Amino acid sequence: MLINYESRKRVVRAVLAGKSHQEALAEAQITACERSVYRWMQWYREEGEAGLRERRHGVVWKVTDEIRAWLVECCQETPSWSASQLQEQLQETFGVRMSISHINQIRIDEDVPKPPKKN
User: Fold this and answer.
1) How far apart are CA 111 and CA 51, in angstroms?
2) Cα(10)–Cα(40) distance, rounded to whole angstroms?
3) Whether residue 40 sits in one domain with residue 13
4) 19 lies in which domain range?
5) What is the pLDDT of residues 29-59, one digit of tens each?
6) What is the pTM (predicted TM-score) of this model?
7) Number of domains in the chain
8) 38 vs 9, 18, 53, 66, 71, CA distance in Å?
């Protein structure tokens, strides 16, 4: 199940009612780590239920199949390129800006190794 405002609220209410974080997560039918639950509790203490609202800004950008294939191909053909070099090439080729963490996540998802670290 997706972790959203309602599911965070259910977990916080369950913890406030005395349940453990594992019990609260199971009851809300979501998976999250203990640290996340403690973070939600802190947000709740600081801001009330408003603190449990989505904190991401903007629209979640989905990578097209074309861009994903291009990234995988670039990583395989030029394995020494860093994520910042791929980011620049992506901007030049497609006019799209993608975060370095997103590029690295695609590398992980597609089992494409990162370039070796420089000494």
Assistant:
1) 36
2) 11
3) yes
4) 5-52
5) 998 899 999 999 999 999 999 888 876 655 5
6) 0.49
7) 2
8) 13, 14, 15, 39, 37
